[in-house]
Design brief:
16 helices, 2 domains, alpha/beta, six-stranded mixed beta sheet, binds pyridoxal-5'-phosphate, 400 residues, Rossmann fold, globular
Length: 400
């Protein structure tokens, strides 16, 4: 990829080749154009960059370390390294783009952040950012998800966010997205919509990627310093694809580094039992942009499943869709069972309990290490597993 990759993609209309764009109603188009303009003028300013750097260092605790997994590498082969986003404040990578989005909101004079959340991870990260900047925060969440993810609902409330229960339809993520958008459209002057991954209409996939690039920039320096080389293989899990874009972005120009994006194969490849969007989907439209999607016969988003609720989305970032077609990244999948096995392996061999999302990337690393015992592997450990403990123990029990 050329040195100018980040200036070339997306193009001015928000396209990554045929993917992305903004297929939205005209009044929303005006708001997106304003956010886009503000993003270019504000986020590239010296003052903004300095302030975001300070936040990352003193509030988030960045840089997060790169860690060599000694016992895991001895058992599986290869040299396995983790980029420890689980040690980022709030325990996952999502705060990287939430702090960026909230800082932009502050510079734009906004008073309120609005978003939807599925499992509650994005809601908690955004509520944290809102508390930091003294902004109001409104999080829309399906009633079914609110019961399932009760601790995250409590966290958001403690952080001062207003959690709006969504009680129509299936009462999960899709309805929450509609509800949050509706609320935003009623109040686009004082509020700003903050998306949770590299998805949605332009400029969000670009903004979120750029705010996540810090992960790759740090990791490349750290890996070079530790080993004197670049990693042979780089692995990240893919829901919408923000943690993966953050890490991959620093290595796209290095043809010798192989990149792997790992989707959830769930229980099986039957419709409704997985969320392997790029493995099994086809190009289509979802939530105002074009990307690979899983669809039913009528072209509506198909039902999806993953043991990791942060990965069960029937679309994917437009940039990943392009990178797949260009063969720059290999997209593959990991089953629920493989995910659980690696969840316990990492916990017991390294003393690190991964988020179930991140455990998909770890599981793939273990397979790859066995196949290529002489190679190095850098995995993005996107988050910690504390949120998943009850679910894992209740559903799977402890291994021997
Ligand atoms: C939300 C989440 C993900 C998935 O989001 P991406 O945008 O694909 O990165 C992955 N890991 C963790 C820990 C998450 O909370």
């Amino acid at each position: 990829m050329s040195k100018n990759y980040f200036k070339e993609y997306p193009n001015v209309d928000g396209f990554f080749n045929e993917y992305g764009g903004a297929f939205i109603p005209p009044h929303l188009e005006t708001e997106m154009a304003k956010i886009n303009e503000a993003y270019y003028s504000i986020s590239k300013s010296h003052k903004f960059i300095i302030e975001l750097r300070n936040i990352r260092k003193h509030y988030q605790g960045r840089p997060t370390p790169v860690y060599h997994c000694n016992r895991l590498s001895n058992k599986y082969g290869g040299q396995i390294y983790l980029k420890r986003e689980d040690l980022n404040h709030t325990g996952a990578h999502k705060l990287n783009h939430c702090m960026g989005e909230a800082l932009l909101a502050k510079y734009m004079g906004k008073k309120k952040l609005i978003a939807e959340t599925g499992a509650g991870q994005h809601g908690v990260a955004l509520a944290t950012a809102a508390a930091y900047f003294g902004l109001e925060c409104e999080i829309h969440m399906g009633e079914v998800d609110m019961v399932k993810e009760h601790p995250n609902v409590q966290r958001m409330k403690i952080l001062g966010a207003n959690v709006i229960p969504v009680g129509h339809g299936l009462k999960t993520l899709k309805e929450a997205v509609d509800s949050a958008f509706e609320a935003y459209l009623k109040d686009p002057i004082t509020a700003i919509y903050c998306i949770g991954s590299v998805v949605g209409p332009h400029p969000f996939p670009m903004m979120v990627r750029d705010f996540q690039r810090v992960v790759g920039i740090e990791a490349k320096d750290q890996f070079l310093e530790m080993t004197g080389e670049l990693p042979d293989n780089i692995i990240a899990c893919i829901g919408g694809g923000s943690n993966a874009m953050g890490l991959f972005s620093a290595f796209l120009e290095h043809e010798e580094c192989r990149l792997f994006g790992i989707e959830p194969a769930g229980k099986s490849f039957k419709t409704g039992e997985h969320a392997a969007t790029m493995t099994l989907g086809k190009p289509g439209m979802i939530h105002g942009f074009k990307c690979y999607t899983l669809q039913d016969e009528e072209g509506n988003p198909a039902p999806v499943h993953s043991i990791a609720s942060g990965l069960d989305y029937p679309g994917v970032g437009p940039e990943h869709s392009m990178l797949k077609d260009l063969n720059k990244v290999t997209y593959d999948s990991i089953t629920d069972q493989e995910c659980i096995d690696s969840f316990f392996e990492l916990s017991r061999l390294e003393g690190i309990i991964p988020a179930l999302e991140s455990a998909h990337a770890v599981a793939y690393a273990l397979k790859l290490a066995q196949k290529n015992p002489k190679q190095s592997i850098l995995v993005n450990l996107s988050g910690r597993g504390d949120k998943d403990l009850d679910y894992v123990i209740d559903t799977f029990g402890l291994p021997e």
